Amino acid sequence: MAHHKAIYPGSFDPPTLGHLDVLTRARRLFDEIVLAVGRNPDKGGPFIEIETRLALLQDLVDEIVADDPSLAKVTVAAYEGLTVDFARDQEASAILRGIRNTTDLQSECQLAITNRQVADIETVFVVPGEAFAYTSSSLIRQIAELGGDPQRLSTMLPSNVIEIISARQAGNHGS
């Protein structure tokens, strides 16, 4: 019997409830998922340092898996370089991506076709719940960096992420 393993790549900077929703939905489709935390050169420097993101995500993944341990196993890993190279190293059969809207679909389809041509790996798209259709890490970073109240983002962010943003705004830049 084939083992279906996917990588779910992203910067997850910061991790959102939309990311977690996609992961939760995908656990029904695969035997194993690697939540792959990478660096997006288009997004500049990190908002939350990678070590902190990895710890945050591990805590969040542990909660998700504990809710239903019968679904796919999930691990969290950092990677550098090309996503397709990491996918190959992990012996993944697919790359998992969340699609919120037609703008995402257009850019993700182009990337999926390229990944299939270059690395012979398929991309599986999962649409998050409607509550997360407009959740964007980039927008959340912008709101937080401009002093917006992180508590107002509670429908988009896990509580541990809100705590980190609040501490950062208060002057504790340990994130």
Q: What characteristics describe this protein?
A:
175 residues; alpha/beta; Rossmann fold; 42% helix; 16% strand
Q: Would you mind describing this structure in some detail?
A:
This protein is of the alpha/beta class. It has a single domain, classed as Rossmann fold (3-Layer(aba) Sandwich). The chain has helices at 17-26, 50-67, 83-89, 102-119, 137-145, 159-169, and strands spanning 5-10, 32-37, 73-78, 94-98, 122-126. A five-stranded parallel beta sheet has the order 3-2-1-4-5, with helices on both faces. It is globular, with a radius of gyration of 16 Å. The model has no long low-confidence stretch (mean pLDDT 92).
CATH topology: Rossmann fold
* Helical run tally: 6
Which H/E pattern describes the elements?
Answer: EHEHEHEHEHH
Q: Unreliable segments (pLDDT under 50, ≥5 consecutive)?
A: none
Helices and strands in order:
Blueprint: E1 5-10, H1 17-26, E2 32-37, H2 50-67, E3 73-78, H3 83-89, E4 94-98, H4 102-119, E5 122-126, H5 137-145, H6 159-169
Parallel strand pairs: 1-2, 1-4, 2-3, 4-5
Short description:
The chain is 42% helix and 16% strand.
